[in-house]
Design a protein that fits this description.
It is built from seven helices and seven strands, in the order βαβαβαβαβαβααβ. With about 250 residues, the protein is an alpha/beta fold. The protein has a single domain (about 10-240), classed as Rossmann fold (3-Layer(aba) Sandwich), CATH 3.40.50.720. Strands 3-2-1-4-5-6-7 form a seven-stranded parallel β-sheet, sandwiched between helices. α1 (about 15-30) links the parallel β1 (about 10) and β2. α1 (about 15-30) packs parallel to α2 and α4 runs parallel beside α5 (about 155-175). The termini are far apart. The relative contact order is 0.15. It holds the Pfam family adh_short_C2. This is 3-oxoacyl-ACP reductase FabG.
Length: about 250
């Protein structure tokens, strides 16, 4: 028996990058895992195949989480397939950079709808299914705590909102035995921000350790919060950022 045997997790944006690493790590720790994807069906089903190859059950759910009903539908699909929900990981994200005066309404709406509204709606839908030991874990950003260069105002604003949400949820859900926590990754080697990208050396220069995260670095922390080690951690914002916010 492993740490999450018998538990069910839903990971939004789980087809690639950090979300993929989280989904696979939770499955490796014994959970059955549902994951949402926006468009990359082949990748999402590939992650499910890896989960199932490891002996756990998986489910890929196509969901445009910027819409008003998709988050609740993803929760409902997870419960319908697995009969329960114990762990919600709000990971799905998008990045629109640039000067604030140049941000389009479409970029603003997509960012806030995905990073804030969809997270709240997923939480709202999940709460009735989360019992004692339930976990809500959201993926924020080091930009919520420190903004070392220009061009990320919209993104950092949206991720900062999760700090207040997480603290509020800790108080609202603590009496139910449900924890809520926030993980703030720094620069992480993904397609969105590759470690060999144009600005990678600049980003490394802001860290204490001089290196990028791997997606697995973030997944390890999520797994700790999801498992027995996270039973008494709630309302916390935990940096996995190689020391950017040190």
């Amino acid at each position: 028996m492993t740490a999450l045997t018998g538990r069910v997790a839903l990971v939004t944006g789980g087809s690639r990058g950090i979300g993929r690493a989280i989904a696979l790590r939770l499955a490796g720790d014994g959970a059955d895992v549902a994951l949402t994807y926006a468009a990359a069906a082949d990748r999402a089903h590939g992650v499910v195949a890896e989960i199932e190859a490891g002996g756990r059950r998986g489910l890929a759910i196509q969901a445009d989480l910027t819409g008003t009903g998709a988050a609740a539908e993803a929760v409902a699909a997870t419960v319908a397939r697995f009969g329960r929900l114990d762990i919600l990981v709000n990971n799905a994200g998008v990045f629109h950079g640039g000067a604030p005066e140049e941000a389009s309404i479409e970029a603003i709406d997509e960012t806030l709808n995905l990073h804030v509204r969809a997270v709240f709606l997923a939480v709202r839908a999940a709460i009735p299914h989360l019992g004692e030991g339930g976990r809500i874990i959201s993926i924020g950003s080091s930009f919520a705590e420190r903004v070392p260069y220009p061009g990320v105002s919209l993104y950092s604003m949206s991720k900062s909102a999760l700090i207040g949400l997480t603290r509020g949820l800790a108080r609202d859900l603590g009496p139910r035995g449900v924890t809520a926590n926030l993980v703030h990754p720094g620069s992480t080697d993904t397609e969105m921000n590759p470690a060999d990208g144009e600005d990678a050396d600049l980003e490394r220069s802001f860290t204490a350790l001089g290196r990028y995260n791997s997606p697995e670095d973030v997944a390890h922390t999520v797994a700790h919060l999801a498992g027995p080690g996270g039973r008494n951690i709630t309302g916390a914002s935990i940096a996995v950022d190689a020391g950017v916010t040190a």
